[in-house]
Amino acid sequence: MLTVPEVCTRLGISKYTAYRLIHEGKIPAVRVDSGRHRFMVEEHEMDRMENQEDYFRVPVAEPAGPQLLTAAEVAQMMRCSVETVRRLAATGQLPAIRNQGRNSHWRFNQGDVMAYLRAQPVAAS
I want to staple 6 with a disulfide (CB 3.0 to 4.6 A). Which of 2, 24, 79, 105 is the partner? Predict the structure, then answer.
């Protein structure tokens, strides 16, 4: 049986993380009421956790929806003023979403902005 500080050393985590994982059930531990260390982890459980590389890895969620840009970000991409971007959105030339409320703002789907830029004729020099 291993104490929590021994588990921390072997896994390379802090004691606060270890106790959190014990309480979440991610580290199987036995509660012992004697002495300073109240939880003990069995050796074979420790070996199993060490052999499993991604045991404590948190999955990273993919963005839920399309990447939305502000008018200022679109203006920077298009190399024009923010007012030009707002005018294009208001006239429907550039697809946009308008937030509701007193201080409404335009939001632009990055894919729509890229499609708009690709559709624009190239100016001759």
Answer: 2
